[in-house]
Amino acid sequence: MTDPIADYLTRLRNAINAKHRVVEVPASNLKKEITKILFEKGYILNFKFIEDGPQGTIKIALKYDLVNKVNAIKKLERVSTPGLRKYTGYKDMPRVLNGLGIAVLSTSKGVMTDKEARDLKIGGEVLCYVY
Question: Looking at the DSSP assignment, which residues form a beta bridge with residue 58?
Fold first, then answer.
């Protein structure tokens, strides 16, 4: 697999389109950090790290509106790819939907959102947009 983050986002996107409640993805430290950010920002209901085998899995419970059956995640968009990396400084930090969405960045201080990186005045690689 050449792009595990794109695979992670695609599995989430496919589970949302199929109206699944739970999705399982192969684990990595970067995927675990992205999952924690999605949980903290309220885009997923819950998550669990399962240590089975050499890699392990992440079990993610998706969040739906009970009345309209609409998911909390409208769009997952991969920005930086292995073929074309996208880096940004803190002054040029992207604002997703004018601040309503989040951009997930990989920085020297770890994986964080665009707002946290702007507050710490550090830049990094823009991994994905979520809204």
Answer: 25, 49
Q: Which residues contact 75 (CB under 8 A, 6 or more apart)?
A: 129, 130, 131
Give the tens place of pLDDT for each residue, 62-119.
999 888 889 999 999 999 999 999 999 999 999 999 989 999 999 999 999 999 999 9
| 3-state SS string for the chain | CCCHHHHHHHHHHHHHHCCCCEEEEECCHHHHHHHHHHHHCCCEEEEEEECCCCCCEEEEEECECCCCCCECCCCEEECCCCCCCCEECCCCCCCHHHHCCEEEEEECCEEEEHHHHHHHCCCEEEEEEEC
Global model pTM greater than 0.90: yes
Q: What are phi and psi of 77, to 5 degrees?
A: -130, 120
